[in-house]
Amino acid sequence: MKIRKILKYTFLLIFTAPVILICLIWLNSKIISLSASGKMISDPGTLNRKYDVMIPGAGQYKPEQWINHSFNHRMEAAVELYKAGKVRNLILSGTYVSGLFNEANEMRNVLITFGVPDSIIIRDSTGFRTWESVSNIRKQFNLDETVIITQRSHLERSLFIAWCNGISAEGFEAKPVPHHHRYWNLREYLARIKATCDCFRHHTGL
After folding, report:
1. Tens of pLDDT, residues 65-105
2. Which sign does the torsion angle of CA 184, 188, 189, 193 carry?
3. Does a structural domain hold residue 83?
4. pTM above 0.85, yes or no
């Protein structure tokens, strides 16, 4: 009888554990989305002054290989914000691998071709993850407020990370990527779990 009960509860656990895990992942994502509610804009006119603006990295790939819509749309949004007179400095934060790619340089090169002056561009080549890109706003540049430019789902996570680091941040939405790239939504769920864990470690020191 005891063996039957053990088997019963074992099978119950096997079947319910994945459901519970999926629910927790969904709930975590929803909480991060709610934390960014009211902090995202798409009209430069809603900003009443110039800000230090941060753009998290996205590599510029060769068109014959792959068009990186994330990169292109973030650059377009940055230029729009600059031309609207809302940018004091542009912090370009991304990954750097010697001899292979430098996301901050790639962003800089494109922005200059659109008329953004090099004098307001600040490069951060230590933004290996979104956590570093956002937290460096305070750690490296001693800023306590910023505007972040990226796509909506990534923007919600970036604003959550800013909140975790005590940074007052608003988000300026770049255009979304085409539908055939929606597989990134799954990656975003996992990245939000990582962001929550990073936030917990940041505040607990564990």
Report:
1. 556 788 899 999 999 999 999 999 999 998 888 777 788 99
2. positive
3. yes
4. yes
Task: Label each residue of 78-115 as H, E or C.
Answer: HHHHHHCCCEEEEEEECCEECCCEEHHHHHHHHHHHCC
Specify the amino acid at residue 68: N
In this predicted model, what pLDDT tens digit does every residue of 100-143 receive, in sequence order?
A: 778 899 999 999 999 999 999 999 998 889 999 999 999 999 99
Rounded CA-CA distance 154/169 in Å is 14
* Any domain includes 17: no
Q: What is the CATH number of the domain that holds 164?
A: 3.40.50.620
**How far is the C-alpha of 112 from the C-alpha of 118, rounded, in Å?**
7
Residue-number span of the structural domain to which 120 is assigned? 33-204
Q: Is 138 exposed, middle or buried (0-12, 13-18, 19+ CB in 10 A)?
A: middle
d(CA 94, CA 56): 6
